[in-house]
Amino acid sequence: MFEAAPIKKVSVVIPVFNEQESLPELIRRTSDACEKLGKDYEILLIDDGSSDRTKAEIERAAAENPKIRCISYQPNQGKGGALREGTAHATGDYIAFCDADLDLAPEQLADFIDRMQRENADVVIGSKMHPESKVDYPAIRRVYSWGYYILLLLLFRLNVRDTQTGLKLFKAEVIKPVMRQILVKRFAFDIEVLAIINARGYK
């Protein structure tokens, strides 16, 4: 029976833009979730051109916890640009993307890693359309989501129910070359990344 290679290090990449108020909880919950993994980890907070004290708050946290890294630049490049920058700096053999709004809890990362190991997957993607997902969407939004899913399936053969979800896990050898290739830096970034990965035959 095939056994997945043991994980040496997990990198969590989080783009942030003017998040000085929410950073303490974000950092606390993400750090706690990573500590419970029982593996080496790093948290890369990407200050995507913030105009408030976001950079200073990240640097303060990094001074207290050497597992936290601050990457900051100007001007704002959008989510795709921030994740591309973070991926380039990540040193883990697994790389997770996590949104700063905590819409999908970082505590779920342990389940993502377990699923990736058990199924020997290259990518694990959260989904608000999953039967066990606890969200309350208006009916019209569910219709739009299904229509969007069918469109991506037809255009890219991309059988992913929720491409925009804020929590994704990748093997580093899969995501790093893809991130060097992407062109889109804003709202369509997720689609481009997943379409390329899918076209390359990854699981």
Largest sheet: 6 strands, mixed
Q: Beta-strand percentage?
A: 15-25%
| Backbone CA Rg | 17 Å
Give the strand order, joined by hyphens, for the main sheet.
3-2-1-4-6-5
Helix/strand-derived class? alpha/beta
Gross geometry: globular
Number of strands: 6
What does this structure look like?
With 203 residues, the protein is an alpha/beta fold. Helices cover 41% and strands 18% of the residues. It contains 7 helices and 6 strands; from the N terminus they run E-H-E-H-E-H-E-H-E-H-E-H-H. It has helices at 23-35, 54-64, 78-89, 109-119, 139-156, 172-179, 189-199; strands at 9-16, 40-48, 68-73, 94-98, 123-125, 167-171. It has a 6-stranded mixed β-sheet, with helices on both faces. Strand 2 (40-48), helix 2 and strand 3 form a beta-alpha-beta unit. It is globular. The relative contact order is 0.17.
Q: Which keywords apply here?
A:
single chain, about 200 residues, alpha/beta, 7 helices, globular
Quick overview:
With 203 residues, the chain is of the alpha/beta class.
What's the helix and strand layout?
Layout: E1 9-16, H1 23-35, E2 40-48, H2 54-64, E3 68-73, H3 78-89, E4 94-98, H4 109-119, E5 123-125, H5 139-156, E6 167-171, H6 172-179, H7 189-199
Parallel strand pairs: 1-2, 1-4, 2-3
Antiparallel strand pairs: 4-6, 5-6
